[in-house]
Specification:
The complex is a heterodimer of chains A (about 325) and B (about 525). With about 325 residues, chain A is an alpha/beta fold. Chain A is about 20% helix and about 25% strand. Chain A folds into 2 domains: about 5-140 and about 275-320, Ribonuclease Z/Hydroxyacylglutathione hydrolase-like (Metallo-beta-lactamase, Chain A, 4-Layer Sandwich), CATH 3.60.15; about 145-270, Rossmann fold (3-Layer(aba) Sandwich). Chain A has 7 helices and 19 strands. Chain B has 3 domains: about 1-140, DNA ligase, ATP-dependent, N-terminal domain (DNA ligase i, domain 1, Orthogonal Bundle), CATH 1.10.3260.10; about 205-395, D-amino Acid Aminotransferase, Chain A, domain 1 (2-Layer Sandwich); about 395-515, Beta Barrel (OB fold (Dihydrolipoamide Acetyltransferase, E2P)), CATH 2.40.50.140. The chains are: A alpha/beta (about 325), B alpha+beta (about 525). The interface of A and B includes residues 250 and 271 of A.
Chain lengths: ~325, ~525
């Protein structure tokens, strides 16, 4: 009724793929991250926001045709509904009812409050299809507010330096900005060019990001960036772009930052453990709450999650899907 | 414990020395006694704790977490203490126990009580507290802070010269209450240790141009031997050998310690010497950093001391006396020395600086790296004053090498490729021979950075390989054999002397040219 194919997870009853990694005739997309939302499909069904984000990233003609997911829909012999996943703006779980069985494909999801998107909604199901990005019992993501407090303390401790925060362009960057605003940081936040359109879109969608300025503002000298917060995709740190800032403190907002070696490998001076995925306690709690007959694991640390399910007496299996990057967090 | 855990975290992620010192100074300022003292002792490696073994920890954790899940986690995290710190099930709310209490318990616990004690503590700490506790208990802090850096931070905290801390250090024990009392404005503690370290006198570099302004008659000169500058001290039966930064290296050199038949504090060069033949620096390196030395090594690599100066002799402090007086006193000890272990560095006869230049250009031994020039009337003063002592090193060796890899820097060099790996030709292959990250100006750094970006072939994380096209003139101070390097050689103090954009890569030097500069093998 739902099974993996080379292009991704496939539903024969509705003849569609979910988050296919190569072009297909009909795709249902959970969210706008590049490894889940690719261009070139014949038809795409996704939330309004995910479709908008895909258009920003790939241009208006990223698919043959598009359809906004609103309310329950019928596709072939399958009944389909989208529910918020709490991962990034527009992210959704896809619930499928076919042959009397209920599947919930959660995509990537997160259960912590996120000012930049709608909260996760538990959807009862017989088969829960879950990610396993942080599926190891070492991952306990702290409350993001505490991490923001560490960043602000560092800004205060090093007023002569710029704080350069690495954050992925969709989701993490806007969440970080919104968290900084909630913590009382009112100064302009400087953003890398790669963030501009996505930040503008979040503002349009009602997410309050406060004053944003381009980090490449010609009027700014190196010294002007002292004591400022600059947000950029981590790849920018390797570019000459980073040379414009005074003795920058390299920060990185990611769930991976919980592991010291990961932070040091990247030359991060201030690791901020802020994740848009479920950590181990939230992941295992979600499975316990939904109490599905079966758990299917898409990508990440499958072995550990399956071991956990086995210990709990649940049926679980890996889908061995390829093409999803867990570094992009 | 919370504060100590946070300190370790900051130190681990702060790359710059100045940043680390800042974190340490803040910690010393904000923490009370004896907490700051135990933190200091943990960093300098001066705590005598019962060592906790990895197998004990594994057994503890797998009682609480499924062994298979622990295994997956350990594979992913890669560090036992960190994995346990993160995976340990949190029960009761964390309590912030004083570091002094935790250290005291670990010192006193019997072997049988140890697992129970550790488990009870892990139950009441948060993850970063558990990490710090486990690092403390296993004795492997490795947070990128040397004992010397910690002492430099103490000096900065108390605004006293680092040499005064180094002089006191070996007479002090954790938690260093008297030391902190002094740094906070109280009385300076009196060192009670026998044969304490006394801060050494250092020289500044010079050349023929600068020497021209000085009267050669006012100076003495001697060879600069390429070993390790040390201080040997004998005091009421206690014998010690210190590095010039005050590290006690006695344990690595029992053979030399046995030969210290005098009472006093002498300054000299540590060498490996067989009769008259002084071995190259690389052989001395084999004797360093050993807790104990095997019989074979003692025989094949005998340590010796070539003496330069005397600070104290038989209770008399000579440091205020002129160099010539101290030298005479040193010569007075000569007949007590076992000549295989202790001898005097000879003084050089010269009338003009040109005479000295001629000697420097043609030294009688390969293990000479230049000449030392000392004002005859100069007292022995701690630190590197500009003037009374000069080192006039022989010209560095140079090779023309090809840039092959570059790595990103951090701090002020963020965004710049500033660590460069260079190679020499071996047949038609380029073999990496070293790494340099200084020697260039800011403008040269910009042009190197530009070259790296425009000529990148592949990226590996923070490292890029580049087209082998740019020739760099690499200056270095010496060369050792090294089985750990593919090239078989390791340079000392390599730096980029010039960017040779004018030279095609094919004309860079060959590995055999470099190997010809190696000291003869034994």
């Amino acid at each position: 009724m739902l099974h993996p194919r080379p292009a991704g997870l496939y539903c024969p009853a509705g003849d569609f793929h979910i988050d296919p990694v190569r072009p297909v005739a009909r795709a249902l997309i959970t969210h706008g991250h590049a490894d889940h939302a690719r261009s070139g499909h014949g038809a795409v069904l996704a939330t309004r926001q995910t479709l908008d984000i895909m258009a920003i990233r790939y241009g208006q003609d990223f698919a043959g045709q598009t359809q906004v997911a609103e309310g329950p829909l019928r596709i072939g012999d399958a009944e389909v509904a989208f529910h918020p996943a709490g991962h990034v703006l527009g992210s959704a779980q896809i619930a499928i009812r076919t042959g009397g069985r209920r599947f919930t494909v959660s995509g990537d999801y997160c259960r912590r409050a996120n000012p930049a998107c709608a909260p996760f909604e538990p959807v009862p199901c017989d088969v829960f299809v879950t990610e396993a990005t942080f599926a190891l019992p070492v991952f306990h993501h702290p409350e993001p507010e505490g991490q923001i407090a560490r960043l602000l303390a560092s800004v205060q401790a090093f007023p002569e330096r710029a704080h350069l925060v690495g954050a992925y362009a969709l989701g993490k960057a806007q969440r970080l900005i919104a968290l900084l605003r909630a913590a009382g940081w009112e100064a302009p936040i400087y953003i890398h060019g790669a963030l501009e359109r996505l930040c503008a879109y979040h503002i349009e969608q009602g997410v309050d990001l406060g004053p944003l300025r381009p980090a490449t503002d010609d009027g700014m000298t190196k010294a002007d960036f002292a004591g400022q917060i600059v947000i950029a995709p981590p790849s920018a740190f390797a570019a000459t772009w980073a040379q414009r800032f005074p003795d920058p403190v390299i920060c990185f907002a990611s769930g991976w930052m919980q592991v010291r070696a990961r932070a040091r490998q990247r030359g991060v001076e201030l690791p901020l453990v802020i994740s848009d995925h479920v950590d181990w306690p939230d992941l295992t709690r979600t499975i316990a709450e939904l109490d599905p007959e079966q758990v299917w694991v898409t990508h990440g640390r499958e072995e550990a999650l399956i071991r956990h399910c086995t210990l709990e007496g649940r049926t679980a299996r890996p889908l061995n899907l390829v093409g999803y990057e867990d570094e992009a967090e | 414990m919370q504060h100590f855990a946070r300190l370790l975290e900051s130190l681990a992620f702060t790359p710059a020395r100045t940043g680390k010192i800042r974190h340490l100074v803040t910690h010393f300022r904000n923490r009370p006694d004896p907490e700051r003292g135990y933190a200091l002792a943990a960093l300098t490696g001066d705590l005598e704790l019962r060592k906790v073994t990895p197998s004990l920890l594994r057994a503890l954790v797998t009682e609480r977490v499924d062994a298979e899940l622990f295994g997956y986690s350990y594979d992913f995290v890669g560090d036992l203490a960190e994995t346990i710190a993160l995976i340990w099930p949190t029960g009761a709310p964390p309590e912030d126990l004083p570091l002094s209490q935790l250290v005291g318990e670990l010192e006193q616990a019997g072997k049988a009580d140890l697992p129970g004690l550790i488990a009870a503590r892990l139950d009441r700490l948060d993850p970063s507290g558990r990490h710090a506790y486990l690092k403390l208990a296993t004795g492997g802090l490795r947070v990128g802070v040397s004992a010397r850096l910690a002492r430099a931070a103490l000096a900065e905290y108390g605004t006293v010269p680092a040499t005064e801390i180094e002089e006191l250090w070996h007479g002090l024990t954790p938690p260093y209450d008297s030391l902190f009392a002094w740094l906070d404005g109280g009385e300076k503690p009196v060192s009670a240790a026998h044969a304490p370290f006394r801060p050494v006198m250092l020289s500044t570099g010079t050349d023929l141009d600068q020497l021209g302004a000085l009267d050669p008659a006012e100076y003495a000169a001697e060879w600069k031997w390429d070993g390790i500058r040390v201080q040997a001290s004998v005091d009421r039966g206690t014998r010690r050998l210190y590095s010039r930064t005050g590290e006690d290296i006695s344990a690595s050199f029992p053979d030399l310690l046995d030969a210290l038949e005098f009472e006093g504090t002498l300054d000299g060069e540590l060498l490996v010497r067989r009769g008259a033949e002084v071995a190259p620096f690389g052989e001395l390196q084999k004797r360093l950093n050993r807790k104990s030395v095997g019989k074979g090594l003692l025989q094949s690599h005998p340590a010796a001391l070539r003496l330069y100066d005397a600070l104290l002799i038989e209770g008399r402090d000579l440091r205020a006396d002129p160099f010539t007086t101290r030298r005479k006193a040193l010569e007075g000890l000569r007949n007590r020395f076992d000549p295989d272990r202790l001898d005097l560095s000879p003084l050089l006869a010269f009338d003009t600086w040109d005479d000295l230049a001629a000697l420097r250009a043609d030294p009688p031994d390969a293990v000479i790296e230049g000449v030392m020039i000392k004002r005859k009337d100069s007292p022995y003063t701690a630190g590197r004053a500009k003037g009374p002592w000069f080192k006039w090193k022989r010209d560095p060796m140079v090779v023309d090498a090809v840039l092959i890899y570059a790595q990103r820097g951090h701090g002020k060099r963020s965004g710049y490729y500033s660590d460069f790996t260079f190679a020499l030709w071996d047949g038609d292959q380029l073999v990496p021979v070293g790494k340099a990250y200084f020697g260039f100006t800011d403008d040269e750094l910009k042009s190197l950075d530009r070259f790296v970006r425009n000529n990148t072939v592949e990226r590996f994380g923070p490292v890029r390989s580049v087209k082998p096209e740019l020739v760099l003139e690499i200056a270095f101070e010496g060369l050792n054999r090294s089985p750990r390097h593919k090239s078989g050689v390791a340079m000392r103090f390599p730096r980029i002397a010039r960017i040779r954009s004018d030279k095609p890569a094919a004309e860079a030097d060959r590995l055999e040219t470099l190997k010809a500069l190696l000291p003869p093998a034994i």
